[in-house]
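Hi W., the 2-acetamido-2-deoxy-beta-D-glucopyranose complex you wanted:
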Amino acid sequence: MAKSENKPMPNAVKFLFGGLSGMGATLFVQPLDLVKNRMQLSKGEGGKKEYKTSFHLIRAIIQKEGLFAMYNGLSAGLLRQATYTTTRLGVYNALFTHFSGPSGDAPNFAIKAGLGMVAGMCGAFVGTPAEVALVRMTSDGRLPPELRRNYTNVFSALMRIAREEGVVTLWRGAVPTMGRAMVVNAAQLASYSQAKEIMLKSGYFKEDILLHFCSSMISGLITTIASMPVDIAKTRIQNMRIIDGKPEFTGALDVLGKVVKNEGVFALWKGFTPYYARLGPHTVLTFIFLEQMNVAYQKFA
Ligand SMILES: *[C@@H]1O[C@H](CO)[C@@H](O)[C@H](O)[C@H]1NC(C)=O
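Structure:
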């Protein structure tokens, strides 16, 4: 990403480009995020699943709630990108430049993974309130009307959560959110750069959109498998209710233990299809938007 002959880009611009690319990508993949969250919350016990596959769930949502319900929580998805991705990519780019050699050599694999993890954790902490709103808004429609939270948009969601449950609740699930981000970013950012480097060296690829596309698809698959168990813990904690002062889960490990015990080990990968279907294109679109904005900046700034 950072080359020595390029005009240096102010950090604020890097942050802005990162967030904008993420938000652009979210406009396309928001429904998949909704499906993923609903699958992760559906509890099949005794081998009988609530929905057999994501496609059954999608059909049920469209029939019961209407086509536009697939975009519920869009405002939260956009705010999540504006906060999480902006911080994450901004921090990663700045660190990447800082750790590159004097002649522009990329840092090695281990350093890249470390940078990705640090950047991801910073982004996740900043983005947790939007995540809480997103999980709750996307899953509201699965409840009977009298149990719904009825948040109208992300800002009213954040305000109501702070008022009704305390400001600290905005950071509910911050630990698994940051843990998930560490895993995602270590896997995603490092495997993306690494895949790109390897494919460039192979001689079959050149620095173009096809290269960015292939690197992203590979990196997305690795990321999905690695991060789903942490993600289901995050989703269930952020959606839980506290009944008579007793939270449903005490922490991420508690969720994982209960899921494995009640629903089986493979339940940790519930929502795999929408998660991968979302992550691949989201990563592809984000990097394509980002690379194109970087090119435009070099040309016009
Ligand atoms: C949400 O709306 C339904 C009616 O559509 C209502 O029964 C329910 O109490 C509302 N929930 C909240 C938290 O206001």
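The CA atoms of residues 73 and 137 lie 5 Å apart.

W.
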